[in-house]
Amino acid sequence: MGVVRRRVEAPVEDVWATLSDGWLYPLFVVGASRMREVDDGWPAVGTELHHSFGAWPALVDDTTEVLQAVPPTMLRLVARGRPGGEATVLFVLHEVDGGTEVVLEEDVSAGPARLIPKVLRDPAVKYRNTETLRRLAFVVERRTAPGDTSDHTP
After folding, report:
1. pTM of the predicted protein model
2. Which contacts qualify for 145-153: CB closer than 8 Å, 24 or more apart?
3. Whose CA is closest to 135, among 15, 1, 13, 12?
4. Cα dist. 95→20, 48, 106 in Å?
5. Where are the beta strands (DSSP E) in 9-153?
6. pLDDT of amino acid 147
């Protein structure tokens, strides 16, 4: 399973707040192009993000569903990217010295992508998820920058 870690310079609650706002996922999830809808109650078990991935004009519409949520420390998802398949994604948040260690695990759980040997798919997943956590850290840290009193409205 592809596992990556990153320290985010913000409290666990702030990282959870970003993960709990489904409209923000295209800002940090590599490959997510746009959000079409977020179910009411996200990230409650069974709720979905309705997203698109790819680049125009070859956008593919699909969904990501919450399998398990333990606020503010754990979120398990099934991300669909059909026709390629589905992946189980796990975010685990740990408080560390005033910040948060985010652990992201992902592996293919269904579909043709399972035919790719793990030894070949793991490096690609790790590379992608390293960038996903880098972007997540940017979003969280910029939303919660100490001393930032600007309202960020256009």
Report:
1. 0.89
2. none
3. 15
4. 17, 27, 21
5. 32-38, 48-53, 60-70, 74-81, 85-96, 99-110
6. 57
Asked whether 62 and 51 are in contact (CB, 8 A), the reply is: yes
What's the one-letter identity of residue 150? S
Separation of alpha carbons 66 and 74, rounded Å = 11
pLDDT tens for each residue of 1-22: 679 999 999 999 999 999 999 9
Q: What percent of the chain has pLDDT over 70?
A: 92
Q: Give the Cα separation of 15 and 142 in Å (integer).
A: 11
Distance (Å, whole) CA 62 – CA 35: 10
**What is the C-alpha end-to-end distance of the chain, expressed in Å?**
41
Q: What does the block give as tokens for 147?
A: 């001393």
What tokens does 130 get?
Answer: 């390293």
At CB < 8 A and 24+ separation, what contacts does 70-77 make?
A: 71/16, 71/20, 71/43, 72/12, 72/13, 72/15, 72/16, 73/12, 73/16, 75/19, 75/43
Q: Are 42 and 63 in contact (CB under 8 A)?
A: no
